[in-house]
Amino acid sequence: MTTLSSGFARARRWLRDHPLAFDATLAFCTLVAMICSSFTDPGDGHGPPAFGARTPELFSVLLMTLTAAALVLRRRRPMQVLAVTAALAAVEYVLMDPPAPVVMSTVIALYTVASRTDRPTTWRVGLLTMGGLTAAAMVFGSTPWYSQENFGVFAWTGLASAAGDAVRSRRAFVDAIRERAERAERTREEEARRRVAEERLRIARDLHDVVAHHIALVNVQAGVAAHVMDKRPDQAKEALAHVRDASRSALNELRVTVGLLRQQGDPEAPTEPAPGLAVLGELVTTFRNAGLPVEVACADRDRLPAAVDLAAYRVIQEALTNVRKHAGAGARAEVSVVRVGATAEVTVLDNGRGSAGRRPGTGPGGGTGPDGGGPGDGPDGDGPGDGDGQAGGGHGLVGMRERVTALGGALTAGPRYGGGFRVHAILPVEARTGEPDRPGTAGGTGLRR
C-alpha cells in the first residue's frame, strides 16, 4: 500500500510539473469515455442502459476526436477551446440523431474557463454555453424537450461552471494565505534586522559615552600627577587614586555593556543597573576631582522613565566631558534637570572660552568639524586630531542627538552670548523609543562633539 501511494504521489508530481502531458492524458481519457458512451443506449428510462445497442456514425467519431484534441490546449487558450468544443457539440445536436456525447469536452473546457477567469466572466460564459447547448438539444433532438438527456446537458454544464469557480476561489484563498505568510516572514526578518541595528547603535553610543568620559578624566589626572610628581608627591598620589577610581568605573560600565552581547549559556553577566540621574552626584564628583567646578540643580530625578533617565544622564556626562576637554582653565559648569509639563529639560552651561583650536570654529586649529577638531587639537595640548570634529572622527554630539531624538525629544547646542557653551535637551517623559529621527528635532551651530 505504501509503495502504491508513493508511486501515485510521484505520478501526480510529474503530471503537475508537465501540464501539457497531463492535458494530453485527459484528452485521451475523455475521447475514450465519449466513444464508449456513444455505444450506449439510455433507453426509455424504465430499464438499465444497454451497451452496444447502437453504433456511432463516422461523423460523430470525427467530432469527438476533434473536441478531445482541442482539450490539449485548454490551459493556453481556454476561451478558444471552449468556443470550438461548444460549436462542435451544437453541430452534433443539430445534425445527428441520436447525438453522440460530444458535450463532454465542452463540460471540461467550461470548467477550465471558470477556474482561470473571474466570477463575472464565468457567469456570462457559463450561462451562454448552458443556454445554447440546452436549446440545441431541446429543439433539434428527436426526444421530447423535457427529456432527462436535455436537462442533463443543462445540469452538467452548470456543474462545470460552479466547480471551476469554486476551484478558482480556493486557489485565490490559498495564494493569499501563502502571500501573507511570506510577507509576515519577510517582516519578521526585517524587524529582527532593524532591532539588531538599533541595539548595535545603542551599545556603540554607550561605549562611546563610557570611554570618552572616563578616559578624558584619566588623561587629565595622569597629566596632573606627572606635573606635580616631584614637588608635591601627596597631590600626585591623590591624582593617581582618582585615575584608579575612574579606570575601575570605566571597566565596570564596559563589563555591563559587553554583558549585553552574551549568548544564552554564557557565564552570567553583571546585573548592575544602568546609570541614571540617581547617581548623578557620583558623576559630578569625578569632574570636581578633575578640577572642574560643577553646580547642580536637579529635581524629580527619581521619577523619570528608565529610557529618559539614562538619556539625561548620558547627555550630562558627554556635555561635562566636553567642558573639561575644551572649555579651558578656570571654566565652571552648571547642570540643571527640571520637569516642565510632560517633558524633562536638561541644561548644561559653562563659561569657558577655551584656547585656539579647542572651542568650536575658532583659532587656526579649528578644522572643518563641529569641534573644529584638527591637527594639534586636544584638551591639554595633546597630539594631532584629538578633537571631536570631522577631523578627529568624534561622535559625541551625534550620539547625544540620536539618544534624544530616538525618544522623540529635541537637542540644541551652541555658543552662549557673551562666552561659554550651552547644551539643552528636551525629553518627553513618555518616551517613544525606536521612533525614527525627524528633521529639525535637533540641531546646533558651531557644535563641539
Characterization of the model:
The chain is α/β, with parallel strands linked by helices and 449 residues long. Helices cover 56% and strands 9% of the residues. It contains eleven helices and eight strands. It has helices at residues 2-17, 19-38, 58-70, 78-95, 103-116, 119-140, 148-228, 233-259, 280-289, 306-326, 396-406; strands spanning 40-41, 50-51, 294-298, 333-340, 343-350, 410-415, 421-428, 442-444. The strands form two sheets. A six-stranded mixed beta sheet has the order 3-4-5-7-6-8, covered by helices on one side. A two-stranded antiparallel sheet has the order 1-2. A hairpin with an 8-residue loop joins strand 1 (40-41) and strand 2 (50-51). Helix 7 (148-228) packs antiparallel against helix 8 and helix 7 crosses helix 11. It is rod-shaped. It starts with a helix and ends in a 5-residue tail after the last strand. Residues 355-394 and 433-449 have low confidence and may be disordered.
What does the secondary structure layout of this molecule look like, with pairings?
Blueprint: H1 2-17, H2 19-38, E1 40-41, E2 50-51, H3 58-70, H4 78-95, H5 103-116, H6 119-140, H7 148-228, H8 233-259, H9 280-289, E3 294-298, H10 306-326, E4 333-340, E5 343-350, H11 396-406, E6 410-415, E7 421-428, E8 442-444
Parallel strand pairs: 3-4, 6-8
Antiparallel strand pairs: 1-2, 4-5, 5-7, 6-7
Helix pairs in contact: 2-3, 3-4, 4-5, 4-6, 5-6, 5-7, 6-7, 7-8, 7-10, 7-11, 10-11
